[in-house]
Q: What sequence folds into this?
């Protein structure tokens, strides 16, 4: 849920301070590149609205979150029971001169310029009505994950690498000259290419590399552990491929942010590094560059359970296509 958030509120009990769950939430927030974090120190009424208590918690959390790379932290002392510093400023904490929670939420800048990132268009559906009115119509429907697409753009279809030109864009049945991130559109291309659900249409001048070996950080969310050698499905945008967990190089220790090497497995709530080999090439961006096309899910192929949420690293090895799998479909 936090993967698309612009701001996260981390709630702390003033009586308990920073606990393991607080550190876990801070780590997930940092991994998911949430740009704004509010530390809401609650139940200040139960510690007599003491400024030193708030200051100590805010300092401990800020030090920890800064080490994780959280870019902006706003600490606010509150009492949700009495409403102190939630909507109105608190008369009990006149030593605090910052905004209330609501004031901060209303003022914090969110959003970004969609044209700042390269276009990424995952194909969800191929439209071919083949009716008397539209005998030759072939459109590729989906939601633009990032950037802007324009009529006339030279584009590449991944993972095949075929190139062509955008000749038309349809939004809600009407033609337009451009579409931007977040809009659902249908793309028309100059050439009759073999394109299917799961393919990615990108600008030829800013195409990501394709790879079958993915090194990433994952948050494990399932009750069953994730183990080396485990067969999984990897879902990236609209594409789902078979994969094998080759290695689990490390697991994050939340207390001191150290890396526990070669744990061999990840259990529920663990955060760790994995190396995954896929049966087909994928076009992943670094998660730091694109939260939509740099993320993926690992899924249990037997029952469809989500095992882990992954974020690809800043770089990973591009590999050539591998031989066709053997009869069980997993040896690649």
A:
């Amino acid at each position: 849920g936090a993967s698309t958030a612009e701001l996260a509120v981390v709630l702390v009990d003033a009586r308990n301070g920073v606990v393991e769950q607080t550190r876990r939430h801070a780590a997930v927030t940092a991994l998911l590149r949430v740009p704004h974090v509010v530390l809401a120190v609650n139940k200040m009424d139960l510690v007599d609205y003491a400024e030193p208590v708030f200051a100590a918690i805010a300092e401990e959390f800020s030090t920890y979150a800064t080490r994780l790379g959280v870019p902006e932290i706003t600490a606010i002392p509150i009492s949700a029971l009495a409403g102190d510093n939630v909507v109105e400023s608190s008369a009990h904490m006149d030593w605090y001169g910052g905004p209330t929670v609501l004031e901060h939420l209303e003022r914090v800048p969110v959003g970004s310029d969609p044209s700042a990132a390269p276009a990424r268009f995952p194909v969800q559906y191929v439209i071919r009505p083949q009716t008397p009115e539209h005998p030759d119509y072939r459109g590729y429907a989906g939601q633009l994950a990032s950037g802007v697409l324009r009529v006339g753009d030279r584009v590449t279809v991944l993972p095949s690498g075929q190139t062509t030109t955008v000749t038309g864009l349809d939004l809600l049945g009407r033609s337009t000259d451009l579409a931007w991130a977040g809009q659902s559109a249908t793309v028309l291309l100059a050439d009759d290419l073999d394109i299917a659900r799961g393919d990615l249409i990108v600008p030829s001048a800013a195409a990501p590399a394709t790879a079958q070996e993915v090194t990433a950080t994952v948050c494990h969310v399932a009750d069953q552990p994730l183990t080396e050698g485990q067969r999984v499905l990897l879902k990236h945008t609209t594409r789902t491929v078979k994969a094998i967990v080759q290695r689990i190089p490390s697991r994050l220790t939340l207390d001191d942010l150290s890396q526990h090497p070669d744990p061999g497995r990840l259990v529920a709530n663990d955060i760790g590094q994995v190396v995954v080999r896929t049966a087909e090439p994928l076009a992943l961006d670094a998660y730091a560059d694109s939260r939509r096309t740099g993320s993926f899910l690992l899924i249990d192929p037997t029952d469809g359970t989500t095992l882990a949420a992954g974020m690809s690293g800043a770089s990973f090895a591009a590999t050539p296509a591998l031989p066709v799998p053997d009869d069980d479909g997993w040896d690649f």
In short: The domain at 115-206 is CATH 2.40.30.10 (Elongation Factor Tu (Ef-tu); domain 3). Residues 314-327 have pLDDT under 50 and may be disordered. The radius of gyration is 24 Å. Helices lie at 20-31, 51-68, 101-107.
